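TASK: fixed-backbone design
INPUT:
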């Protein structure tokens, strides 16, 4: 998958990239890959081409979190601190806040009587 030829990411900028195998939907604001990732676990690399060959900028070995959760770095860019997050933050910095009190880690919200 190649990003648009004039696409850029500024330092500290966040970008959502759709790994949906639908590159024809790519425009300057919304990027789509020509591939899909394995649904439960796999590896993904961000690679830059240069004159000496491909250069890996970042990579991720992943196991998809529970629906409605996310996985990433905190602080952002610290690959030694990758973790699952309770809150999803597409296009923004990761939110490490813990799940709200009264929320079970196994089945969501619980009620008390």
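OUTPUT:
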């Amino acid at each position: 998958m190649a990003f648009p030829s004039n696409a850029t990411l500024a330092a500290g900028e966040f970008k959502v990239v759709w790994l949906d195998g639908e590159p024809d939907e790519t425009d300057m604001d919304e990027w789509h890959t020509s591939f899909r990732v394995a649904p439960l676990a796999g590896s993904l690399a961000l690679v830059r081409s240069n004159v000496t060959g491909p250069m890996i900028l970042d990579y991720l070995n992943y196991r998809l979190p529970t629906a409605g959760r996310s996985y990433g770095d905190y602080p952002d860019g610290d690959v030694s601190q990758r973790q699952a997050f309770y809150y999803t933050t597409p296009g923004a910095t990761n939110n490490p806040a813990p799940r709200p009190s009264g929320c079970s880690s196994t089945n969501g919200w619980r009620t008390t009587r």
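COMMENT: Strands lie at 17-18, 31-32, 41-50, 53-63, 70-73, 82-85, 103-104, 108-109.
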